[in-house]
Design goal:
heterodimer; A: 7-stranded mixed beta sheet; 6-stranded mixed barrel; 31% helix; globular; B: 5-stranded mixed beta sheet; 16 strands
Chain lengths: 845, 497
């Protein structure tokens, strides 16, 4: 068959159709770019239709990031399809018919009134804006500064999905962040935070210069003075109190190179292993649990595997809010007919869609997962061949789950026995079941056990080592995987190599010139204890607001205040920085080169898009300068040289170079040699230690149980709009959508306590109290409360205990017992009143 | 006690059958039986009585005529009515005779014979019989029916659907409504045979909301058929359901119909995939016109060869034409394909209404081409019409007289499309609006020769580039009007109306 795409007739038809498009555009405004270019191509200059009727003048300005201008629309409905087919939110529809047909968000179901984006369920992912061919949907930043002229490929610095973006630049200013179609993790999609939440880099209150505390005020000092001061203080304290008196907490928001270098500073300059990163408070239990069973602690499969799975099980994770691009991929899979099981105490968006929602009581993961194992064993659903070939210790596990009948677990977990059985049958029988899990598994007193119980199920059913299967932790920060990978851990060197490995010790000495300290260092919670006990004198924290985000804040703040010397590097004056002796401004991810490792072990480049303001040094340069001033020269001229050094020291990165990272795909570790292509699927033929191990775990109750004084269980987590401590997202237009943490309470509890929607209540635990506005919902169970921790004013983490996972010290953010008290208005101060005025009800589905 | 037969059809009711019923009910000496309509609407209300020589009919009856009818005075034997006795009634054989909801009556008239035959055959053999019949879709596109069925039958899917398109929206057509109101089991039988052939377990009748009586009758018929166990085909149960449309003309287009059936906006889908591959909910679906399904039972009962023996080479079977407009005898005509349009209008239409002179004839609804009086010798069949740049469509024939303003008529049809366009494709969404505007400009005397050229070019663009039949066909009435009555357009464009 011959297909002709250029004939006279076709050209005539194209011109005539284009003329119809142009005929409805305002004659006095310039044609939208796409149409103008087409017109030029087709040699068209004017519309022949006399006085044609035009599009209805209608604008939707209700979204804080973009506008819709119907006058420039061509009713192609690509925006509607983007919302339906890419994001799966269905916020947009075509409205009216015939000539008047136009896209709208938020149509009233009965009366046809148009509410606009703000009144719809739009999640501001920006897919519609990206797909709009005419600029009818336009970002505010593009409208204000003009369309981008050049772009630089980089990687998003919010969650662990690792979305690739093209940062668009005009006049040395970033004007847009456009998700890249060839981004391996995001395939052209994005979420509100990555797409629109980057304007904090231009926030007026960004730190510009080093600040030294003088009593209760800050003095601006030069970089040289600041770096000298750091070197002198660390040397003084080391000489006076010993190397154990100094510790460092690294940023899992920073690059691999910066994290490695910070570890190198502690190990080579200070001579200890007192370094940790915030993986401690999120997925450290995953590290422990997966190491013990599988021998490697990272997602076993890739994001792409969501397209290959025949069943997806989401355990203790809320990806449509916390990892929205993965959430959208799960929704797409579900729309294709892939069954979805959600294990979560909350009725999240995915839980509402799920074929099966096991709405368990917080803290009962192990009981529920063991009961699923019991059903699999009892009903002969095990993959005996996989178990025999690839695992050991199955008998111990069978023993452990033998008593866990679904009927006996029903009263513990609060999930009907038949649902547990059904989930077990489906997971075991799909042919390829993929599990993703989040902090709902790890942030418990027995979090490591939860991870182990999950891995046991995958081992028992052969759901590992094959496409579309696996155990896949959804890592919270852009580089929390990488920070641990490159050795910002007190108990492992880069690549999870043992500190007492003699071969590593000699390699380390030959590469760095210094010995590798063999003694384990302090985990973050140990550092607080050491500081309170007076053993820890100096602490260097890069890009981590422990004084807002760690549990039991009172204790954390006391520990920080007890230090002789606290240095904090951050973009903003964080709660932690406020307690520091010296504060250094940081360069954002858009202002430096490096690499991040996403939740599927994919190492991807970030590239300098713009210069950091005011000569700010990126973190890696600061570490180099301080080390050099302390007598250990670090002379790297570019992060690629640091990566080369990581590759030399770390077998799993042996084949990683910047040259190879130039491709859009990046590299998924392990990359064992320069010729090795990387690893999309782990454990295909063999586990790191040969066989994987079943580890029997028994259900044990959470650290706290509701009592008469504290009858509610409080879980904390994130919402779509904000990111962790909120220091970035709060400084963007996202604040127009959500400007407060709220407390989700079940309607029946509210009715019993006679509390109303929007009412400010006091949340009280044995540790402290916090004020929060109430949002009534059926997302939580009766007796269960949920809130986020994005706003310092809420001080939610004051409430939380120091209870943590026994093995990993991962804090029990998901279970604290509290009571809720009504508030008399007289108790509120002016600031509270102001906050109440600003609290807007968040959309709760 | 006299047993009188009176049509229950909506058109008959509009002609006065409803008032007549009331009059009959008041009399003790009348047993009234409501039947389907003969289709000779120019004679309605018709009252009939049984005689040993068959039915005798009284025409245009009013209440005052009842005593005379009861007394047996006057009346015309039905077999002597030329409008009817010249027709070849096959699909409409029961019309005027049976009671619509009487299963017994339908069976007595041979009903369910086709289904019985189909159940004794393999699915493949049923489709083969349809292939032999050379039946083409009666909704307008005239696609070979066996082909659709075969594609759907061979598609591998857990669910398949049968959908009857009862969104009969063309002005001047009413045969689907008559079928649903008058012989509902025939549609059910046709759909069941199709379900049996393709392996569907669910069927929908998508009925326009402007047909409340048809929808009601179909629902009652489905219930009665179900109670009689007729929806159980061996070990397979077929669920049938009537779904009412929401008033959109374009929902008569099969893909827009499916969207509407799925509960979405009635906008067309791009094809392929065709519904037989991926239709309702993405599953293989046979969408056919009510009339098409209504032909199927007779084909299965009498054999495909019987059907193929009627009509012309490319158009086998009978044409069901609905004559309206300025003729003497508007009504439903079923004849084998092949008579000329002139013959149909003269023999059945009975010529022009008193005082009316023919100006143009439009066949195939508001998107159909116009024929001037001089072009009426075209044979009524798919191929000859296609050759003439026209369509048979759903068989609607509207006759316009000398008082018709052709520019205004053209404007009316373009405005109709602008009103009914779903808005999905630009040639139709914007083009129909521009066409309407140009015609309004010409009509108001503000136009010029360039406007007529632009209108022609717009027409060519819409024909070639529109997504569905609405946009593709919309220019035909306008352009045929321009072609056959150019002076009227030129005069109007010059402002000399």
């Amino acid at each position: 068959m011959v297909v002709r795409t250029e004939t006279d007739r076709l050209r005539r038809l194209r011109r005539n159709v284009l003329e119809l498009f142009l005929s409805e555009q305002a004659p006095d405004a310039p044609w939208p770019d796409t149409l103008r270019r087409l017109a030029e191509t087709l040699g068209m200059t004017a519309v022949r239709y006399p006085h044609p009727s035009l599009r209805v003048a209608w604008e939707d300005r209700s979204n804080p990031f973009f506008t819709f201008d119907n006058a420039r629309c061509v009713s192609c409905a690509r925006c509607v399809r983007a919302c339906d087919e890419i994001q799966g939110t269905h916020a947009l529809t075509m409205f009216e018919r015939g000539f008047a047909a136009r896209p709208v968000a938020g149509v009233g179901p009965l009366d046809g009134t148009v509410g606009g984006f703000a009144g719809s369920n739009c999640v501001s992912c920006g897919a519609c804006v990206k797909e709009c061919p005419t600029g009818a949907l336009m970002e505010h930043t593009v409208a204000e500064y003009g369309p981008s002229v050049t772009s630089v490929r980089t990687t998003c610095a919010y969650c662990g999905v690792g979305c690739a973006f093209d940062a668009g630049i005009r006049n040395d200013r970033i004007v847009t962040m456009m998700p890249a179609d060839d981004g391996p993790a995001n395939r052209g999609h994005a979420c509100m935070k990555g797409r629109f939440g980057w304007t904090y880099v231009y926030a007026p209150d960004r730190l510009q210069a080093p600040l030294l505390r003088r009593g209760d005020r800050w003095e601006v000092i030069s970089w040289d003075a600041a770096l000298n001061r750091m070197a002198n203080e660390f040397m003084r304290i080391k000489d006076r109190d010993g190397a154990d008196a100094v510790a460092a907490i690294s940023s899992s928001r920073g690059t691999n190179e910066e994290n490695y270098l910070f570890g190198k500073f502690i190990r080579c300059v200070m001579g200890t292993n007192h370094i940790d990163n915030c993986a401690r408070v999120c997925h450290s239990a995953t590290v422990t649990g997966m190491m013990e069973t599988l021998g490697a602690s990272a997602a076993t499969n890739s994001i792409d595997d969501l397209d290959r799975a025949k069943l997806i099980m989401v355990v203790g994770a809320n990806p449509t809010e916390s990892h929205p691009v993965v959430g959208a991929a799960i929704k797409r899979a579900h729309r294709r007919g892939v069954p979805l099981i959600v294990v979560d105490p909350r009725r999240t968006e995915l839980a509402r869609l799920a074929d099966l929602h096991l709405q368990l009581r917080p803290g009962t993961n192990v009981a529920l997962l063991n009961a699923m194992g019991h059903v699999m064993a009892a009903e002969g659903l095990l993959d005996r061949s996989f178990i025999a070939r690839r695992t050991e210790g199955v008998d111990d596990w069978l023993q452990a789950v033998s008593g866990c009948t679904p009927e006996s677990i029903e009263s513990v977990a609060g999930v009907p026995a038949r649902q547990i059985s059904e989930a077990a049958r489906r997971y075991a029988g799909s042919g390829a079941s993929l599990c993703v899990h989040g902090l709902g598994v790890t942030e418990h007193r027995w979090g490591s056990h939860g991870v182990i119980a999950l891995v046991n199920l995958a081992l028992a059913t052969g759901n590992l080592g094959r496409p579309g299967t696996g155990i896949n932790p959804l890592r919270g920060q852009n580089n929390v995987q990488g920070a641990s990978d490159v050795g910002c851990l007190p108990n492992y060197f880069a690549g999870y190599q043992k500190l007492d490995d003699p071969a590593l010790a000699s390699l380390h000495r030959s590469v760095t010139g210094r010995p590798l300290p063999a003694t384990r260092g302090m985990k973050t919670p140990d550092m607080w204890d050491a500081a309170l006990a007076g053993r820890l004198k100096a602490l260097w924290i890069i890009g981590y607001d422990v004084a807002q985000t760690d549990p039991n804040l009172k204790k954390v703040r006391q520990a920080l205040q007890n230090l002789d010397f606290l240095v904090v590097q951050d973009l903003f004056m964080s709660e932690t920085a406020k307690l520091a002796h010296l504060v250094l401004p940081g360069a954002s991810f858009l202002e430096k080169d490096g690499t991040f490792t996403n939740l599927e072990r994919r190492i991807q480049r970030i590239r300098k898009v713009v210069e950091p303001p005011n000569g700010i040094l990126p973190d890696w340069r600061v570490v180099c300068e301080v080390a050099t001033r302390m007598g250990y020269p670090m002379t790297y001229t570019h992060p690629s040289e640091i990566m080369d050094e990581i590759a030399r020291l770390t077998p799993m990165f042996a084949g990683v170079t910047y040259a190879r990272l130039e491709t859009a795909a990046g590299l998924q570790w392990p990359v064992l040699s320069p010729a090795h292509e990387g690893t999309a699927l782990m454990h295909r033929d063999v586990f790191p230690h040969g066989k994987a191990r079943f580890v029997p775990v028994d259900y044990l109750p959470p650290g706290e149980a509701p009592s008469k004084s504290y009858p509610f269980v409080l879980t904390t987590g994130r919402v779509l709009h904000h990111y962790n401590c909120g220091s970035q997202t709060r400084r963007t237009a996202i604040i127009d959508l959500v400007d407060a943490d709220v407390l989700e309470m079940h309607l029946s509890d509210a009715a019993r306590l006679m509390m109303r929607e929007g009412e400010i209540v006091r949340l009280v635990s044995a540790r402290g109290a916090a004020l929060l506005p109430l949002a009534l919902s059926d997302r939580v169970l009766p007796g269960h409360l949920f809130t986020s921790f994005h706003f310092p004013a809420s001080e939610v983490n004051l409430l939380l205990s120091s209870s943590a996972d026994e093995s990993s010290k991962c804090p029990e953010y998901k279970v604290s017992v509290v009571r809720v008290e009504r508030l008399e208005r007289e108790e509120l101060d002016a600031e509270d009143e102001e906050e109440i005025r600003h609290v807007r009800k968040r959309l709760i589905g | 006690m006299a047993r009188l037969y009176l049509s229950n059809d909506t058109s008959s009711t509009a002609a006065g059958a409803g008032r007549l019923e009331e009059a009959c009910r008041r009399r003790r000496d009348v047993e009234l039986v409501r039947t389907s309509a003969r289709g000779a609407f120019f004679l309605e209300p018709i009252v009939e009585r049984d005689t040993p020589d068959g039915r005798v009919a009284w025409f245009s009856v009013i209440a005052d005529d009842l005593p005379r009818i009861i007394a047996g005075q006057g009346g015309t034997p039905v077999q002597d009515i030329p409008f009817l006795n010249r027709q070849t009634r096959t699909t409409f054989a029961n019309f005027g005779v049976t009671e619509p909801l009487s299963l017994e009556g339908y069976r007595t008239a041979g009903g369910f014979g086709g289904l019985r035959a189909a159940l004794a055959m393999t699915a493949q053999a049923v489709i083969e019989e349809i292939k032999v019949s050379r039946l083409r879709g009666r909704g307008g596109a005239a696609f070979p029916v066996w082909n659709k069925w075969s594609v759907a039958q061979q598609a591998d899917a857990a669910e398949k659907y049968v959908v009857a398109n009862a969104d009969e929206g063309d002005a001047g057509t009413y045969c689907d409504r008559m079928l649903m109101e008058g012989d509902p089991y025939r549609l059910i039988e046709g759909m069941l045979i199709c379900a049996r052939a393709i392996g569907a377990r669910r069927g929908y009748i998508y009925c326009r909301q402007e047909y409340p009586a048809a929808a009601r009758t179909m629902e009652q018929a489905i219930r009665l058929a179900d109670e009689a166990g007729l929806l159980e085909l061996g070990d397979v149960r077929v669920e049938l359901e009537v779904v009412r449309g929401a008033g959109s003309y374009v929902c008569g287009e099969e893909t827009a119909l499916l969207e509407s059936l799925e509960g979405r906006r009635g906008v067309v889908r791009a094809k392929p995939p065709y519904p037989a591959m991926a239709g309702l909910h993405g599953k293989p679906t046979v969408v056919s016109n009510v009339l098409t399904f209504a032909v199927v039972p007779t084909i299965l009962a009498r054999g495909g060869a019987w059907h193929a023996s009627l009509g012309t080479d490319g158009s086998r079977g009978t044409a069901v034409l609905q004559i309206g407009g300025r003729v003497k005898q508007p009504g439903l005509v079923e004849v084998p394909f092949g008579l000329s349009l002139r013959q149909v209008l003269e023999e059945f239409g009975g010529g022009m209404a008193p005082g009316a002179r023919m100006k143009a004839v439009q066949v195939g609804g508001p998107l159909g081409s116009l024929f001037p009086e001089s072009n009426l010798d075209v044979p009524v069949c798919y191929d000859a019409f296609a050759k003439a740049g026209a369509i048979l469509g759903h068989g609607g024939i509207v006759v316009y007289d000398q008082d018709t303003d052709m520019v205004d008529l053209a404007r009316h049809f373009m405005a109709f499309t602008a009103e009914e366009s779903c808005g999905k494709c630009t040639p139709c969404r914007v083009g129909s609006m521009r066409g309407r505007e140009l015609l309004e400009r010409i009509q108001s005397g503000g136009g010029n020769g360039d406007d007529l050229l632009l209108l022609s070019e717009l027409g060519e663009t819409m024909k070639a580039a529109s997504l569905c039949g609405l946009g593709q066909r919309a220019p035909f009435p306008v352009m045929t009007a321009m072609a056959f009555f150019p002076d009227e357009f030129r005069r109007a464009a010059r402002g000399q109306v």
